[in-house]
Amino acid sequence: MVQDSAQQEPSAAPASRARDLLPSVVPALIVGVAASLLLVGVSLAAEQLQDALWQDLPDALGVGRYSVLWMFVMLVATGIAVGLVVWKMPGHAGPDPATTGLDAPVLPPAVLPGLLLATALMLAGGPSLGPENPIIAVNVSLAVLLGTRAFPRAPERGWVALAEAATIGALFGTPVAAALVISEALAGQRIKGQLWDSLFAPLAAAGAGALTASLVSQPSFDLHLPPFGRPGWADLLSALTVASVGALLGMCAVHAFPYVHGAFRRLRHPMLMLPAGGVVLGALAALGGHLTLFKGLNEIAELAADPEGWSAGEFATLTVVKLAALLVAASCGFRGGRIFPAVFVGTALGLCAHALVPGVHPAVGVSAGVLGVLLAITRQGWVSLFVAAVLVASPGILTLLCVASLPAWLLVTGRPRMQLRTDGTPIR
Length: 428
Description:
By secondary structure, the chain is an all-alpha fold. The protein folds into two domains: 23-216, no CATH class; 233-412, Clc chloride channel (Orthogonal Bundle). The protein has 17 helices and no strands. It has helices spanning 5-8, 18-21, 25-61, 68-88, 112-125, 132-150, 156-172, 175-186, 195-216, 233-265, 270-288, 297-304, 312-332, 339-356, 362-378, 381-392, 396-412. Helix 10 runs parallel beside helix 13 (312-332). The longest helix is centred in the first third of the chain and has 37 residues, at 25-61. The chain starts with a helix and ends in a 16-residue tail after the last helix.
């Protein structure tokens, strides 16, 4: 049978010409460097404040740095300080953080100083949240504000994509994570041209952001767990089981999110909501210890440095307490993201599995646990796979994670996400 020539030609979107893409390189590089420097600057300022609050001040007062009393005092004080910022600063430090995700809104310029201050205070004070959501929001807002003034004809959405990619690249120290996030976002959209044409400028911004962060602060996610070689059937079973348990555990927090958020929301005022959240977080810190404080990146390195150093019960306690602390901090109004504390939850879960069943390799347990928890908390499949794999840095783990993601995804897809609408109802 003879087909006409139109039917024989592949249906593909026309590729952009190089001269159409080249003008975007310089703006992308500028946004990448600037977004990374802002992230690093806020992080370094928060670390300096954290050292003063958790080392210098208790030492001067003769109080134990991570005593139950000091942890409780600091978390309540952080709630009061952030509450004052949310109450008094212009724009009230942005929208309710329970309603925001990685796809940040464009905020008015007057809101940004309060949001940055609230984020730095939160990072230094100990609540279990990371910097990703508010820093992305600030970078997006600044990129749109300055970019549209410098290039009035450029679409606003382009500046949003550049800032989001640059910040994600800086957060993870590699542009791969940004490319995966943007690819996932573009999956449901009609793309003009080929996919890599749409990714060209954001990838340049992400690369500039990642390189800047690497040169300035040298971020690293490799936990230096015992090396993992060739996967076997037992490793596959371990990965499938731990990832599924992680997904179920994460969904417990997701389902509780609107109820816990609603309980704090009934207090109606940030000077009640945030200090009350600090009280609950102080009680959780007393139960779980100082490793359940902060965003969790340094703390997971401490856990992974000695996988045999805790019992299964202790790892289980760390897992549950950190998940509860994430839930409370995200519900009561602290400005921050959920990815980094979710990584801690998954790491503690994986090490708990290893402590319960020594045949579960620590690298398999940690990567599968992080994968399952992140799938439930973020609903970002590619990012979950990427973060889980980069923690172990072993090629043999990738196949296990790809297979383990399938049952875990079936457990979370179509169900509520850990993000709410403005009326408090969960987004699916």
